[in-house]
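Please review the protein record below. Tell me whether the encoded fold seems credible here:
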Amino acid sequence: QVQLVESGGGLVQAGGSLRLSCAVSGSFFSINAMGWYRQAPGKQRELVAAITSGGSTNYADSVKGRFTISRDNAKNTVYLQMNSLEPEDTAVYYCHADGVFTLRLGVADYWGQGTQVTVSS
């Protein structure tokens, strides 16, 4: 069974920083891309940033220059460094693992349980 465990959310003032972590555990052979999504109240879940196994990254326009995604393949962990946080960044942040290969299910996607990020003005 594959599990994604997130940590690092919390309350921060505008202009501050937070670092999110997401560790993937369980029986799997490989992970393709990993990423972070967020969902604010009353809004759809949106992609924040993603990174492939080779290190290619993709960011939402709203976070470019402020957020950095990175990945430690040896630890099966993805990070999201969030700087210059704004109240508009307030949301539940979800970790996503794409293309996880297991013998039991083949290739599948998995989600973390979400971590709350609140930015006060």
About this structure: The longest strand covers residues 91-102. The chain has a mean pLDDT of 95. The radius of gyration is 14 Å.
